[in-house]
Amino acid sequence: MEVCITSLLRDRGFKVTPQRLAIYNMLSSTKSHPNAEMIFNELQAMYPTMSLATVYKTMEILKEIGLVQVLNAGEDSFRYDAVMTNHPHVRCTECGQVEDVYDINIDAFVNEVSQGTKYQIMGQQFYFHGICPTCQRKNSN
Amino acid sequence: MEVCITSLLRDRGFKVTPQRLAIYNMLSSTKSHPNAEMIFNELQAMYPTMSLATVYKTMEILKEIGLVQVLNAGEDSFRYDAVMTNHPHVRCTECGQVEDVYDINIDAFVNEVSQGTKYQIMGQQFYFHGICPTCQRKNSN
DNA sequence: TTTTTTATAGAAAACAATTATCGAGTAGTT
DNA sequence: AACTACTCGATAATTGTTTTCTATAAAAAA
Ligand SMILES: [Mn+2]
Ligand SMILES: [Mn+2]
Ligand SMILES: [Zn+2]
Ligand SMILES: [Zn+2]
């Protein structure tokens, strides 16, 4: 993993810096799909001098070398995911958490659309919104 | 149509104004999925004093009374659609146009996800991106 | 119709997410 | 060690959207 990002950065002429490693490590070890600000806040303790701009610039690079994907979950800010398979997400409209939708095969659906349109489809993004189990429980009390 | 919006506005205590009618008319007679700025620009000739803020505020109201839906097509701004069925969209990454994806039944897919997750799904949004027929032709020259 | 009440339009300012700029600093090379 | 090019992070700029405020237009009352 760590070897991977180091060489990927170097091969493309990007320098390997503690900030970049920290950001990628943080992202690849969480399932929370954080946005830039969450990443920034989480790393602030360990890297007190790091700025939000660095997070944004690093995400740009990580996206470029194919290590992260940018999610649009219907919010005002983007979220990031170190899992590179294209999978659907669901966001809780009450607590804001974004999770993966598991066990869903999107290929059939994507193929159907690809064949039904004259566009040359390059990618897609699916997101659902609703109420998470925790908030459902909270509501029923 | 016009009766519909007029009474819908009135019933909810909103006033019926020329601006609101113009914005809704423009939106419901186009297939272009315009964003706020496009709507503003298009109406500027006829309503020279109308401001962008009015467009945004009107869209908020129209959304509230169920006459428009807000689309997130993976851009930096929102697009609006007077067609209220939930249907997928495809955006051309070269010319930026956003179109409907026709002849696709999303219900089966949505149901599958609904049953596979512990979330109580309230809605979803699917968007594809790729290259439109026009831009494909342009590219091959 | 005229008056009164109340919501609205639009200008301007405020906001929030993101991007650009730039000088000092640092990694990797010679 | 010295050099060079890339990068960091502070700051400013940008952009889409929302809020604020007040004259005014629309609806209700008279
Ligand atoms: Mn994910
Ligand atoms: Mn549409
Ligand atoms: Zn929740
Ligand atoms: Zn195109």
UniProtKB/TrEMBL annotation, chains A, B:
Record key words, sorted: DNA-binding, Metal-binding, Repressor, Transcription, Transcription regulation, Zinc
InterPro entries, alphabetized: FUR, Fur_C, WH-like_DNA-bd_sf, WH_DNA-bd_sf
Residues the record lists as binding Zn(2+): C92, C95, C132, C135
Cofactor names: Zn(2+)
Domain of life: Bacteria
Any one GO molecular function term: transcription cis-regulatory region binding
Record-level GO BP terms: negative regulation of DNA-templated transcription; regulation of secondary metabolite biosynthetic process
Free-text remark on how the cofactor is bound: Binds 1 zinc ion per subunit.
CDD domains: Fur_like
Pfam families attached to this UniProt entry: FUR
Similarity section: Belongs to the Fur family.
Name the UniProt record assigns to this protein: Ferric uptake regulator, Fur family
Native source species: Pelosinus fermentans JBW45
